[in-house]
Write a structure and sequence with these properties.
single chain, 210 residues, alpha/beta, five-stranded mixed beta sheet, two-stranded antiparallel ribbon, 7 strands, 40% helix, globular
């Protein structure tokens, strides 16, 4: 395990200096280096995450960790026991096609997602997670096709990603702008996903000593 942790820290040192995307605003954000069989994959950090230099550090994070607290995974424990990754590690900004967005952040381009995929791919290859929790449609679509959240949330999926087999339990994005997790059927489907995460063997190992 110490060898894997050392490799993960070396990986994060390289990631910290990534400047592949001209329109992305850094520095790159990543979670604590921890060897875990559970991996959370977000979409992209906001400007508050860039300032705090940790994933889900602001309003959406409060909502996300409130969800996890319902299944006895408190924030500090989660951050230390679950590896937190993302599709893109830098802030996309709020300028889309030369126009400042009134709400939300710019959606990363396919080139930016491809540029950043090397970091996620390495993390999955190194850690070999048994459970991947993608948060939001951008993250979910990296692993399975997600046209509608109702088709994928509330279910456990078997996937093969870069020759690695894993279980996938998707969550909606905890953005305050989205009513999906707070209205039906999203509210019920979110609850089902959380219960699936709670009962997954990899999560049970995390919570065994809490």
């Amino acid at each position: 395990m110490s060898k894997i942790l050392s490799q993960l820290k070396q990986h994060q040192s390289k990631l910290a200096n990534c400047k592949l995307c001209d329109d992305m605003q850094g520095p790159p954000v990543y979670g604590l280096a921890c060897v875990s069989k559970v991996m959370l994959v977000g979409q992209a950090p906001g400007f508050k995450e860039i300032e705090a230099h940790k994933p889900f550090a602001w309003t959406a994070g409060k909502t996300l960790f409130n969800w996890f607290s319902q299944i006895n995974l408190e924030e500090n424990y989660f951050r230390n026991q679950v590896y937190m990754s993302a599709i893109c590690r830098c802030f996309p900004g709020k300028i889309q096609n030369g126009v400042k967005l009134k709400t939300g952040d710019r959606v990363p381009s396919s080139k930016e997602i491809d540029n950043c995929s090397q970091w996620l791919d390495f993390e999955i290859k190194l850690l070999k997670p048994e459970l991947i929790i993608p948060v939001g449609k951008l993250a979910i679509n990296r692993f399975i096709t997600c046209k509608k959240l109702t088709d994928v949330v509330g279910k456990q999926h078997k996937i093969t990603y870069n020759n690695h087999n894993s279980d996938l339990i998707p969550l909606p994005h905890p953005s305050g702008a989205s009513t999906w997790p707070r209205t039906e059927p999203g509210k019920t489907l979110l609850s089902k996903s959380l219960k699936l995460i709670q009962s997954h063997p990899s999560t049970q190992e995390l919570t065994h000593f809490t």
